Structure formats: C-alpha cells, structure tokens
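#structure-requests
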Amino acid sequence: MTARALQLALLLLVVGNLGRIPIADSAGKQAPFLVNDFAVLAILVIASVEAMRRRAFKLDWPGGLAVLFAIVGAVAAVLAVPRYGLSGFELAFSLAYLLRWLAYFGLYVAAINLLRRDDVLGLLSAFDAAVLLFAIFGIVQAAFLPGFAQLVYPESVLYADWDPQGHRLVSTFLDPNYAGALLTIGLLLYAGRLSSGARVPVWRVGVLLTALLLTLSRSSFAALGVGLVVVLLIRGFSTRMLKVVGVLALLATPAIPRLITFAAAFNKLSVDASALQRFIAWSRALRVFADSPIVGVGFNTYGYVGRFYGFDATGTSAFALDGGLLFIAVMTGVVGLALYVAMLAFVMLRSRKLWRDSTASSQERGVGVGVAAITVAMVVHSLFVNSLLLPFLMEPLWLLWAVPFVVMRSRAQTGRAAEPDQIRPRAAVVSFPRAA
C-alpha cells in the first residue's frame, strides 16, 4: 500500500506549482499548500497505519541526524524571538516550514521501514516517468508558451513572485533553475545506471538533456557536470557510456549555434546582475552567521532577521538564500551544519556500500552510483538557488536516499553478510514491542 502511494506521489510531481492553494502570507511571502503536500500527508497517514500494524519502527543514522537537525532549527527559531523581535505569528510562520520539512522527511522514514527490495524498481520507474513527462511538457512550454508563470498566475507580482522567463523551460515548477535541478537528478540517475551496465533508453536521456539545455540554468549545468565527474571517479569510462555520449553529442551539434544565440539573449554567457546579486547575498549571510555561529538564527526566520539587519525583507526571496550549506549554517549554526553534513555523509557511505556490492544487480549498483552523484550535485546546485529545501526536490531526494538502505537491508535479511569496511544499514533507535 505504501509503495503504491509513494509511486503516485512521485508521479504527482508533474503537477508542480500549478496546484497551489495560498493559506498564509507574511512579509510578502506566501505559504501555499501544494498538491504534493496533500500527497505527502496522505502517505504519512497510510504509512503510520501500516507501521502500527507491523508493530515495528526504525530510525537509522541519517534519520536520527535529520531529527536532531530539525530540533536545532526549532530551538534556534524560538531563541530568535527576543533577539530579533519576532512576533508569535512570525514564529509560527517560520516553524510551519519546518513542519513541512519534517513531513517530507517522513517519506524517508516510511520508505526505510515499509519498502522492500522488490518495491525499488516500481519506485524508480515512477520517478523516471514523472521526470520524462515533466521534460516533455517543458519542451512544449518553452516552444509555445513563453512567460508561462505569468500565463498561469496573471495576478502575480512581477519579479517578486515569478521572474519573466520568455521561452526558457520552466515546466510546471515555473522556475528554470528548479526545473533544471529535477532534470539533473533524472540524468544522473540514468548516468549511474549506464556506468554499471544497466539498460537505459537512450532516447529518454536525449529528451531530458534537451529539456535541461532549454532551461539555460547555469546552476543546473554546473551540478550536472560535477555529478558526472563523481560518476566517472567511481566507475571510470565504459564503452557503452562513451557510445551514448558520442551519439548525444552528434545529435546536439547542429543545435549549438541556435543554443548560443538563445543563451546570449538572456545574458547567460556573461556575469550578469543575477550572478552579481548572489555575491551580495553571500556577504550578508556571512555577516549574519558571524553574529550567530553556534545554532544560527532559526529555521525559515531569515526574512525577519533581514529586517533586523536592514536588508530587503519583503517577498519570497527574502526568506531564502542562494548558498546551499551556507544557508543551512545561517539557520542552524555550526551545530546544525555538522548534523546536516553528517547526514549526507552517511547517505554517501551507504551508496558506496551498494555500488561496491558485486552480488547486487547492475540496476542496484547503478542506483548507488547515481545517488552519490546526485547528492554531491545538489549541494553544488544549492550554491546558486535554494534547492536543498524546495519541497519538489526534497521529495525525490529523500526517497532516493532511502533506496540504498532498503536494498542493503533486504540483502542482510536474506543472510548475505555485509563487507567489513562498510557501514551496516541499521541502527534502530525506536522499536515497538511485538505482540506475543
């Protein structure tokens, strides 16, 4: 039941920002309820019932670190009330996003507890289908629906809500950088499988790559490049990968002049105002971090803290920060940053265990490689946009991070011993007693 619900939730990613229900507003930032949020809450209910029926619940090392990270973020937000003059409503508004973060983290908990090895293929197939539909719609949108965000939400405030993007691909996320992040995740998952000898439809790779190019997202291009380097460092070149790259390069060559002209029209071949603005944002963030280095200023309080410092504290962008782990450090200090980095490190170690397991299938080993590459790539991507905390990206990330645990646990339960130099995919900290 939970496996089917998770597959449906991944397919609903295609709805994106087309399904938004505004429920609150503070300092110019809306807090909408998304179709994905409904799906996540439904899954949490289903998973809770199934977990109670099985009378077993486990939280592994990444899960335990994520809980501690959330506690630090909540405590820091409460401490920010007297220091930065937050009202009770502003504190509640900030903590509401932390609750959303925990809800999406709940997908990881549901997956590691309730999914079996046999469920992994269905989960990956659902994600592949969702990204493919997202890419196909995006290509159509880029060609025939310029300024798509303003077409969908004509009442939105220009630049404050959605930037005008013309013929750039934004798909249903209504943002080219976030759209590029999802496409990058899909491409790196394919790259990991290819590197391990698994079958991958080349035409799907071509569709996703075409869609990614149409985003003109430099952050996504950088993330994909770094992710591919990670794949090569893990697996090296293979004949099959070289053939796929060669075919794609041959098909893309005639489109390069047109792509360069397209990119130049959006100033993507030079350091534009958008890129310079990031340096200003990073310098402000470093100033705030220097004043609150231990536990930070609290989860999702940055917009209100900016008001205290005299920064521009209006609009959605005031609450976010293009800085990836720097933003994590600003919100939760060195304590929260250490917990978050440790969580990612455990994910990487578990992925390493999977890709080195010679008895695993090529598909499973490829997922291990892909998850490691995706993790590094998203940290790079988040340097330029706040992608680590976007619900549409947190959902596939949490579920993909859970896949190596599910596979390795199933293998351990069938009696196959783990390699001695790799971590064990357990560490239960909470258990319900079984009925006699």
